[in-house]
Automatic annotation (TrEMBL):
Organism the protein comes from: Prauserella halophila
Name of this chain's protein: Lantibiotic protection ABC transporter ATP-binding protein
PANTHER family, per database record: ABC TRANSPORTER, ATP-BINDING PROTEIN
Gene3D superfamilies xrefs: P-loop containing nucleotide triphosphate hydrolases (3.40.50.300)
Keyword ATP-binding set for record: yes
Keyword Nucleotide-binding: yes
Family, as annotated: Belongs to the ABC transporter superfamily.
Amino acid sequence: MNTALRVSGVAKHFGAHRALDGADVSVPTGHVYGLLGPNGAGKSTLMKIILGLQRPTAGEIEVFGMPHHGRARCDIGALIETPGLWPGLDARTHLRAHAKLRCVPESWIESALDTVGLRGVSGRKVGQFSLGMRWRLGIAIALLAKPQLLLLDEPTNGLDPIGIREMRSTIRGLADMGVTVLVSSHQLAEIAQICDDVGVLVDGRTRYEGDVEGLAADDDLEAGFFRIVAESGSTGVR
């Protein structure tokens, strides 16, 4: 199976603090991969390094078999933290602005809107959107350049049950279209429903990587997760 993203021994030190201390991640092409871990485990730091927003202290990254030199790439899209949107502008205007910034044809806007299910409300001001709709617009912006790899940081955080269900459907739909998705989350139940593979970071190191079933202990995903945290000697708080 081809690998979309390979992270090997990546470390990131901020003075004496080691945000990452030898992370290893292997994401198969076309899969949804869940990056799990307690708060402070290094999930967001790793995503920023993959995007070229931070430089690693050590380690190597390959994207679709090629060394990643820390520069932004058009084949990687991302939505990190809350999407930055203007409440007074409609969805289509947001996408037009980002299309110009990225030098992509405006004709690609319709495809992005269709992918996230917002074409019917594309003329509505974002200030009238639910949180789930704002997240989906953020994903549409991330998809404008038609990336092959998409990074999503806590995409269901703060959503109500309807928004979570819609986000789940959107993410699985992207995988069905051939987009590889790396999802950072601390919501184990959601990860179990949308991901093909998972990796668990604890104190900046990869403590587990494999399928969801392998993480569970006696068919209990939460018990398996806490077992790994305990075996690492971490309290889960940094």
